[in-house]
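dumping this here before i forget
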Amino acid sequence: MQNNFTFTVDIQDNETRLDKFVSKHCPQFSRSFVQKLIDDSYVLVNNKVITKSGYDLKTGYAVTVNMPKKQTVLEKEELVKNSGIELLHEHEDFLVIYKPAGILTHGNPEKSEIQLNNTLSVVDWLEVNYPEIFTLQPGSERSGIVHRLDFLTSGIMLIARNNKSLETFLQMFKDREIKKTYWAIVKGQAPQEGIINFPIVLKPGTLKRMCVKKDDFIRDQQEARTEYKNLEHLSDMSLVEVNLITGRTHQIRVHFAAIGHPVIGDELYGKVSKLINRQALHAYSLEFKYAGQVFVFKKDLPEDMKLLLN
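structure:
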């Protein structure tokens, strides 16, 4: 694989932000991956390292994107050790873990070829700590992953340890027998409680941005239902507790943006915040019945969301 790419800024890209320029010329990379490359000094402008995503480029500038080396086994083990992922419960059939924001659930398209030196996934953590899980669904990236959390969302995750429990939990999610509760900090004074019931579709002309469909029928729309209650009113934001009745891509983020209360710090559906460097969304609790026993797991807000509230 090529180790670096160099592009010359033409007149059409004059005064374009660095991150947008790199994304345009490297469409195989996700926005979060481009951001990480810039943050970690892998992008140079006129042979000078630039770590500011909003850096304005000028016609004639040379932009070089360097590719970090793939990790060794020892490097991956060290990353896993310092990842912040926590084991909350260990059962013979499943694991319950806490995933911090900034950790992938599993690999993305570019990760099979490129691995940033400080980016890893839950699958990496499992590979180091529970390698037997990789006998599940050989060749699949699922590797015991029952459900996912967005890269910049923190919270509780459920991992199956064998094929039987994997099939059971996947069916339980499908039948809505697993209750997931999220805490989110949203813009403005959200109503005391409510139900958001807009279908969700992929926004036309995009690859991963979702949107709601409020009126007429559209092909491939998915029913989406979000129930919430306001836990705390602040001057210009609200802490809400959210129960997902369905589990669509970016459902909470899309639904709250649709009612005029986007999640604070959500760059995709709202705007960047100076107070927190990711969307203020946390998978707070998980509740389900398995083998005749009721399990309830909770994880308090991480420090960045506590600071935002304070």
